[in-house]
Structure formats: structure tokens, C-alpha cells
Design a protein that fits this description.
Helix content: under 10%
Largest sheet: 9 strands, antiparallel
Number of strands: 17
CATH topology: Jelly Rolls
Strand content: over 45%
Number of helices: 2
Radius of gyration: 19 Å
Distance between the termini: 43 Å
Amino acid sequence: MVHTLPDYTSKYKNLTISNVTDFAENAARLGSIVSYDRRGNVVLLDDFEGAVLHWNTAIRGVGAGITLSTINQKSGDQSAKLVTGAAINDYASLYRRMPVPVIKRLGFEISLIPEEDVDSTSIYGEIYTGTRRLVPEMRLDTVNDNLEYRNNVDAHTRIDDIDLLDAADECWLTMKMVIDYETEEYVRFILNNTEYDLTGTALRATNNGTAPHMYISIASWKVALVNTTTYVDNFVLTQNEV
């Protein structure tokens, strides 16, 4: 009989995270922002740690603005601070246009802290294929405490009731949506530790001849007659999602 050391790779298996033999786990331990949901291959990261903001901005209303801030951060020293205007339906939005990585499954992840008077915060992953315009949206309705998606007739549909802490509690929320652009359907949403299976759910899709590109947006909308703030950190775009 052969006597050897125990098989540590099977004896000490983890239940909720990968072992250190996994390269994703090694990267997370070295400080990567890709530590929440590690499925997919990374296309783009932004931890908002630079001296300048690497996004375009769109704002509406008196007092609206978008800056880098050291007040709240999920990791590192900074996050993006989105301040809406002071009138109903004013907004603050980060956006960028880029080539489409692949018209298959893509994932979009952000972390955020919305203030109490924020109406909603959404992440959009819009793609123009040259013949089609595909408009998925994951939306946190912080007035009604709903998680929603934009459906195929361009309306918001509730997925679940959610209980959110506001900025005073300094609790970061993490949200991720995964889209199958080939089938023009949602795949799943993840909010904190809850995953929602949206397999077979059609997204908003229309015929459109705009040149192929991707339009990514993170937008905060307001409802009360005051300026409202949302902090955003750790954006991750992935492809080859399972």
C-alpha cells in the first residue's frame, strides 16, 4: 500500500469561493475589482481611481454634475459621484461608446450607493448591429423598492421587491446583468447575493441602420425637489458569459 500526503485539493474544498489554485481567486486576492461574480472574460474595467473621469457625462438640471469623489468608495480611494438636478425627472449619467466585443453573451456589473431621494438608477448595455438596435436595461426603482428590466415593448417590468439601504448607511449594492445579444434575450440579473434567471425574456429590439457600436450608460434619476446623489464604483464588462 502506498502512503502519501493527503489530497489537499479535495480535502479542503471551499463552498462559496474558488480555491487559491484558481487564477481568478489569485487575482482577487491581489486586489482586482473582479471579485463579485467571476464568470465571463473581462473586456473592460474601471475602478474610477484615475486623475480624470474616463467616461462622457450627461446631466440635466440646476446643480447637476458628475465628479470623482473620495467621500465613498467600494475599493481604492475614489468613486464617481453623480448628482442630479433639483427638478423632477432631472438626471446624471455616465456613458461611453465603443466597438462591439461580440454579439453573443455580455455581462455588465457596477456597484453603487443611491441616496434616499434618488428615483432610480439604471445600467444600459445598448448595441447597434448595423440592422438592429438592442436595448437591455437593469433598473433599481428606489422609490418603490423594485428591481426591474426594460421589456420588449419599452416598458419597465418588476422582477422582485427589494429592501435597499440608502447612502446614510454607506452600504454598497452590487448589480450585474447578463445579456444574450444573439438571441435578443436577457439571461440573468444579480443583485447583491440574489440571482434572477431571466432566460427566454425578450429585450427591447428594433430595426435600426446606425453603424455598429456599443453604448453603455449608468444613469441616476431623481423624484424629489432636491439634488440627489448616487456613488458608482467598480464597473466591469465581460464577454463569454455562461
